[in-house]
Design brief:
Number of domains: 1
Helix content: 40-55%
Distance between the termini: 58 Å
Radius of gyration: 21 Å
Structural class: alpha+beta
Bound molecules: 3-methoxybenzoic acid
Shape: globular
CATH class: Mainly Alpha
Number of helices: 16
CATH topology: Cytochrome p450
């Protein structure tokens, strides 16, 4: 691949999607932030923002930095998308707005109240079962995967069969936002079957009465979206709602296992569970990056980003920018994490964030009532992904209360 060479702005030759960077991006993130407000990434011929101020401002400016040309490296102005684009994530107003309105209505705090009690019971049961089996376990499958997979697909209303496809589907989907590297190649073989399975779950006759899926179809009956849009809106739930919450919860568990005093604070004050989850999302940024595309020549300081160029937004770097946060690398329940960009910001800010917070709150509260101490019990392992900062294994040892 050849790209225009820009010599008039700070540049980096580092590939943000290489194994080394994904394993531990902190040094690269610091270098990007320090290089300037906009940095050219010659490995992919794209621009980058890693400081909180610029990332926040660009995410807010949906007119200047569009999503409709794709939020991955692939530019839909020139390349055919690998799947029909998301009506929310990969869309701009006005088309974006009706699907967004339907989902925000279904997933707002009030609408989720009916789920709280049941999810709390499931969390308590799950934690009791895990603890009954022993005080050493891998928290990724035992808790971080088990809890969302137990509550969320039921809430959407998809059939039980085939749910084991959700995580492999998500893993590939989040890889494909990056370059066509070996991670994408490894997932390519299974991708068509996973895609077909997900598409089939989005049809009206598959979706249980009362679930989010059926409610999306009901919104189509009321004319709020078209019947053609309904399955794609359901698909957004299945795409954005599983890996993200799994890895958000994994991040919170890892944070507490490595910050024992913060765990004690949560135990003393379980009402901190929601703040704790947002602080974990700031601290770990499970969704690390998304691209935008410049809709005109845009000037940032002395740099002009030309129309049509891709800009990589480093959410994880912005969330640890010392220009914005004091002691950014410290996981601290007494900080106010609001303003973090771990859920994005602006028009596209995570429409499922209340679902994610409710899941995390239920699980953390159930754990805090039963577990006195948590520590890492063996070698942890990352699951490298082009978009997500994910855990593959988190061996933990707990003592019970
Ligand atoms: C979607 C979608 C897919 C992946 C992530 C996401 C974080 C949305 O299909 O709408 O948001």
């Amino acid at each position: 691949m050849t790209h225009t060479i820009r010599t008039d702005l700070p540049a980096s030759t580092v590939d943000p999607f290489s194994d080394d960077v994904l394993e531990d991006p902190s040094g690269f993130h610091a270098a990007l932030r320090d290089a300037g407000p906009v940095v050219y990434l010659s490995a992919h011929g794209v621009y980058a923002m890693a400081r909180h101020e610029q990332v926040h401002a660009a995410l807010r400016d949906w007119q200047g930095f569009q999503s409709g040309a794709g939020v991955g490296l692939s530019n839909f102005r020139h390349e055919k998308p690998w799947r029909p684009p998301s009506l929310l994530l990969e869309a701009d107003p006005p088309g974006h707005d009706a699907p967004r309105r339907v989902l925000s209505g279904l997933l707002d705090l009030r609408a989720l109240r009916r789920l709280r009690e049941g999810w709390r019971d499931v969390a308590e049961q799950l934690v009791d079962t895990v603890l009954a089996a022993g005080t050493e376990f891998d928290a990724v499958p035992a808790l971080a995967e088990a809890f969302p997979l137990r509550v969320f697909p039921d809430a959407v209303g998809i059939p039980a069969a085939g749910r084991e496809n959700l995580l492999p589907y998500g893993s590939h989907l989040f890889n494909v936002f990056g370059p066509a590297n070996e991670r994408v190649a490894e997932g390519a073989e299974r991708a068509p079957a996973l895609q077909a399975w997900v598409t089939a779950q989005c049809q009206r006759d598959q979706l249980a009465e009362g679930g989010f899926g059926a409610q999306i179809w009901a919104a189509a009956d009321r004319g709020e979206i078209t019947p053609e849009q309904a399955p794609l809106v359901v698909r957004s739930l299945l795409s954005a709602g599983v890996d993200t919450t799994v890895q958000g919860i994994a991040a919170a568990l890892h944070a507490f296992a490595t910050h024992p005093r913060q765990w004690q604070r949560l135990r003393e004050q379980p009402g901190l569970a929601r703040i704790a989850f947002d602080e974990a999302v700031r601290w770990a940024s499970p969704v690390q990056t998304f691209f935008r595309t410049a809709t005109a020549d845009v000037r940032i300081g002395d740099v002009v980003i030309p129309d049509g160029e891709k800009i990589l937004m480093f959410l994880g770097a912005a969330n640890r920018d010392p220009r914005r946060w004091s002691d950014p690398d410290v996981f601290d329940l007494s900080r106010d994490p609001s303003g973090h960009v771990g859920f994005g910001f602006g028009l596209h800010q995570c429409v499922g964030q209340h679902v994610a917070r409710l899941e995390a709150e239920c699980l953390l509260t159930a754990l805090a009532a039963r577990v006195r101490t948590i520590e890492i019990a063996g070698p942890t392992r990352r699951r490298l992904n082009n978009t997500m900062r994910a855990w593959g294994a988190l061996p933990m040892r707990v003592t019970t209360a």
